[in-house]
């Protein structure tokens, strides 16, 4: 079996196990994105060069798991903050073609890679922008996503001026987050009330590779 069909079978099986409904064309694009990510990673450091798990599992499928706790909708405006190699924005843009994704990173080379991958994948609902988050003026989003390792309070600080009322910040994070959450809630109470609540959804039962990993959802009332 070639590498491509192995990745495809793995992704189909993982998505089926979690009830993530994708058509064959979407699966193809996600597998292709995994290949593109590997190719760009040879030129620009986007993900670890020494992977302990297949890219399709550790990066592509991992990104899709946000959709288990947040149903992306038609016309929804989503910001992927510090997208790096397009994670989680590109996999989610493939899975939710009627949702609009803006991918932002302060590193120009990473955005060049994202733009190249978006073009190669033919995605019409994703745009990659070289910008610092502080420079995003006059924009408002329903949802802000991040896979960055920055503390939750920092991510909430970046998201605060960009989130619409009733919006949410969804992060993929690891480790013990009690202190991070307490800090984010304290800072929120001292500013505009965001986050008003934080939910944790562990994903370690989905795969051993997600040990201690969680989906963190911080809500704005």
Q: Please write the string of helix (H) and strand (E) elements.
A: HHHEHEHEEHEHEE
Q: Per DSSP, what share of the residues sits in E-state strands of 2 or more residues?
A: 15-25%
Average residue-wise pLDDT? 95
Largest sheet: 7 strands, mixed
**Helix-strand category:** alpha/beta
Low-confidence stretches: none
Put simply, the count of helices is 7
- Structural shape: globular
What is the strand tally? 7
How helix-rich are the residues, as a percent range? Answer: 25-40%
What strand order characterises the main sheet? Answer: 3-2-1-4-5-7-6
Kindly provide the radius of gyration, computed on alpha-carbon positions and rounded to a whole number of angstroms: 17 Å
Give the termini distance in whole angstroms.
50 Å
């Amino acid at each position: 079996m070639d590498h491509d069909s192995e990745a495809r079978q793995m992704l189909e099986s993982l998505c089926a196990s979690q009830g993530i409904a994708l058509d064959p064309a979407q699966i193809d694009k996600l597998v292709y994105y995994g290949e593109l990510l590997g190719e760009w990673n040879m030129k620009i450091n986007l993900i670890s060069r020494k992977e302990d798990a297949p890219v399709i599992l550790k990066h592509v499928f991992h990104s899709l798991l946000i959709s288990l706790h947040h149903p992306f909708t038609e016309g929804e405006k989503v910001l992927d903050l510090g997208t790096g190699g397009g994670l989680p924005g590109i996999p989610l843009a493939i899975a939710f073609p009627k949702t609009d994704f803006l991918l932002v990173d302060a590193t120009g080379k990473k955005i060049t890679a994202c733009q190249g991958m978006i073009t190669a994948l033919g995605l019409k609902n994703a745009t990659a922008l070289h910008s610092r988050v502080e420079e995003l003026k006059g924009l408002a989003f329903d949802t802000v996503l991040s896979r960055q390792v920055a503390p939750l309070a920092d991510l909430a600080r970046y998201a605060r001026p960009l989130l619409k009322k009733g919006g949410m910040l969804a992060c993929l994070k690891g480790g013990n987050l009690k202190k991070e959450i307490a800090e984010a809630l304290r800072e929120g109470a001292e500013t505009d009330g965001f986050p008003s609540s934080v939910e944790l959804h562990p994903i370690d039962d989905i795969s051993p590779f997600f040990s201690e990993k969680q989906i963190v959802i911080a809500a704005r009332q």
